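**Paired protein data**
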Amino acid sequence: MSFLTEKKSDRRSRASAGKNRQPRADEPRGDGGPDEAAAFIAEAAADLALLAQRHRLEMLGHLLRMSQLEAEEHVRLRSKPRLS
């Protein structure tokens, strides 16, 4: 069952069940912050853009590539050394 077809009550119970579980050894603590999120989004958007291109979903592919570029720009600007 996908997220889109789940009932709201199923989503809530699954989300609350995850709060009490112990993280695995290979999982980082916390969410990694906005920089890590932007890097993850850039990678996911690139993969999804390729999928859209493969299936000739031009507009969707274009929007996903724009999202990828925006996320990469965030990562690039945040990793620049600051001149003060």
Q: What stands out?
A: Residues 33-54 form the longest helix (22 residues). The chain is about 65% helix and 0% strand. Confidence is low (pLDDT under 50) at residues 13-18. The two ends are 52 Å apart (CA to CA).
